[in-house]
Amino acid sequence: MIKKISLACLAISMLSAQVWACTNFLITKGASVDGSTMITYAADSHVLYGELYYQPAADYPEGAMRDIHEWDTGKYLGQIAQAAHTYSVVGNMNEFQLAIGETTFGGRSELGSQQGAIMDYGSLIYVTLQRAKTAREAIQVMTDLVEQYGYASSGESFSVSDPNEAWILEMIGKGEGEKGAVWVAQRIPDGYISGHANQARITTFPLNDSENCLYAKDVIAFAREKGWFDGKNKDFSFSDVYAPVDFGAARFCEARVWAGFKKVASDMDQYADYAAGKVEHGGENNYASNRMPLWIKPDQKLTVKDVMEMMRDHFEGTQLDMTQDLGAGPYKLPYRWRGLTWKVDSVEYCNERAISTQQTGFSFVAQSRAWLPNAIGGLLWFGVDDTYSTCYAPMYCGITEVPECFRVGNGDLLSYSPTSAFWTFNKVTNFAYLRYDAMIEHIRATQAAIEGKFIERTPAIDAAAKMLYETVGEQKAREFLTTYSANEANQMTAEWEQLFEYLLIKYIDGNIKKEKDGEFERNEWGVPVSPEQPGYPQWWYDAIVKSTGDHFKVVGGAGH
């Protein structure tokens, strides 16, 4: 049986969900329209600047060492032996179409640190992308690295995909006095999709199916040694032992997976109460009774646009809809400024934590296509800022240079740059927060037009690059794709700047400028006509009176 963990540990798990808040979905070949594998990732952090990392392929002499700095903080952790040859990496995808994403689940607090450990979760991703060609090889590299150098992070779920397979790897360190980590990896069955969002999702797993499931040799024995599990091996559940579900894990984390699944599968209402953090059959920690499956079959095969839309959600149309409660204000703003929980009269309440959130640094949909040469087949659809209002630009994995708008060093979180996509997209969203329900319509229309153009052009760009690849060589194909990706991303950023200028003119000072024949309207003498000045919705006025009484009452006015 599984031993209960302390309330303090559960609190740490909830805290982890608030601090490291990312979302991943995994799409297998058989679940996509075109036979590509896809994974998604939203890097949600209040201190992360959205930019596209790039590492060229390189060769190193024998005995070379590589410095490791913690990805979240930049802290120096130590050195590891450098590989003789490293592969080129664009963002979270390498030149062989291998892609890796992550979400942090935290887990047992006593396993959250390991003195002397060198490999944190972020370094694990980017070092592995330089050393592995396939998802299976990546899992081997990642687990070997933590075994050799120690694991310097708390519990983590990784999405790992290549042109043929998609895997979820869940890992947690062994704590102080130990070295390395315990872990389980499962291949998502073809035709199915999976997802994770800051909560461990692997429960029981097959012990004798190395084709579809890999695990640390001591993943069960370690739990027995610690006194956390004493049942039969076949009943061992990785999540229930190392990161049990509590209210925070369900409401803030699993709810996001549920929301993404609900967009593409019609049978997800059966898990609505679980996503809302409601406990079945009584009992404080009885969340395991109605857990969502690790993978589901979508109602129909998914396009890359469908997968992009899975990453765009505020629980619209559900009991958790963030546009409908009083906190959304008069203009249905689906964002809540942190903290995630708050108190009234010593009673704790929460805001929702949706897939789309204001603090996203960058996000992507990584698409791997087996029928094309690797440099052409790998497409990292990359965007910055909030997933709901970002625009995903096509970054081919074979590019040799990053577009200026995404380039590392083009501004940072404390330094504005007018050519930075991150700052341009943030200008639009932060202005839109003032009158969200009106402005988001313009943003979504522009987004749809630009992404539609990118998607429509992709087959022709693929064909042109493939022709170059076959006639004049891979390098020329890469040069072509580099130019294309740069032009499209920079042009997209320029169009987003134009969108900002339009929104600023139309909605400044709470007014709404009138338009006629596609232009802002002027009178016959060239002066702007009077703008619309719509009031607040009636329910908002009712709420003000309810909270303030007669404070704003007009003496002698109507109703007296």
From TrEMBL:
Q: What class of enzyme is it?
A: hydrolase
List UniProt keywords, sorted A-Z.
Dipeptidase, Hydrolase, Protease, Signal
Q: In the UniProt record, does the keyword Protease occur?
A: yes
Signal peptide as annotated in the record: 1-21
Q: Which GO terms describe its molecular function?
A: cysteine-type exopeptidase activity; dipeptidase activity
> TM segments?
none
Q: Does the keyword Signal apply?
A: yes
Q: Which reaction does it catalyse?
A: an L-aminoacyl-L-amino acid + H2O = 2 an L-alpha-amino acid
EC assignment = 3.4.-.-
PANTHER family this protein is in?
Answer: LD30995P, SECERNIN
What is the designated name of this protein?
A: Dipeptidase
Source organism per UniProt:
Mangrovibacterium marinum
